[in-house]
Design a protein that fits this description.
This protein is of the alpha+beta class. The chain has one domain. The chain has 5 helices and 7 strands, in the order H-H-E-E-E-E-E-E-H-E-H-H. Strands 1-2-3 form a 3-stranded antiparallel beta sheet.
C-alpha cells in the first residue's frame, strides 16, 4: 500500500462526520508504519478504545476510511477457533472480533449497521504474509493459494465489506 498522509486518512472516511474524523487518534507509531507490507491500515483508536478504523485504497486508488465499533466485552463462546472474514486467518476465538460499522449516509444516521468478523488486532496484512502468527492450537491452517492470491482475496473481501458500508 502506498503511504497515506494524515489529511488523506481524515478526509477518506465514508461513515462518520468530518468532526469525528478530525478527532480520531492515528495509530501509535504512524510515522513508522511498514506501508509496503500493508493492504490496509487498521487500528483501534488510542483515544477511544471502543472505536476502530480501517483505511485502504479502493480499486480506483482513492483512500476509503471506515469507522467501526469494537465490542465492549469479549464474547464468551464454546467455539475454540474463529476465522477472519477478510484474510481467512484462523485464530483462537478471542483473536477474532465482530466489528460493526454504521452505514454511510442517512441509513447510518438512522442506526443501520453492518458487521464483519475480523482479526481483533486488525493485522490481516501481516497474517496473510506470514509476518505474524495467530495463537491457534495446532498452528496455522495450510492453504494452496499463493501469497499474491491470498492478498488479492483479502483485498476483495475488504472491497466487498466497504461496498456494503458505502451502500
Amino acid at each position: 500500500m502506498d503511504p497515506l498522509t494524515e489529511q488523506q486518512i481524515r478526509s477518506s472516511f465514508v461513515n462518520c462526520t468530518k468532526g469525528e474524523a478530525a478527532r480520531l487518534k492515528l495509530p501509535i507509531g504512524f510515522t513508522d508504519l511498514p506501508w509496503d507490507h500493508l493492504d490496509f491500515l487498521g487500528w483501534v483508536d488510542p483515544g477511544a478504545p471502543l472505536r476502530a478504523h480501517i483505511v485502504y485504497r479502493s480499486p480506483d486508488g482513492s483512500p476509503v476510511g471506515i469507522t467501526l465499533r469494537v465490542p465492549g466485552t469479549q464474547r464468551t463462546s464454546a467455539v475454540k477457533s474463529s476465522i477472519c472474514q477478510i484474510c481467512f486467518t484462523g485464530h483462537a476465538s478471542s483473536g477474532v472480533a465482530l466489528l460493526v460499522a454504521p452505514l454511510a449516509g442517512p441509513r447510518g444516521r438512522d442506526g443501520n449497521t453492518v458487521g464483519i468478523y475480523v482479526c481483533a488486532d486488525l493485522a490481516c496484512s501481516l497474517y496473510v504474509r506470514g509476518q505474524r502468527q495467530p495463537k491457534l492450537r495446532g498452528g496455522r491452517y495450510e492453504e494452496t493459494l499463493t501469497l499474491e492470491e491470498r492478498i488479492t482475496r483479502a483485498r476483495g473481501n475488504l472491497d466487498a465489506f466497504a461496498a456494503k458500508v458505502a451502500g
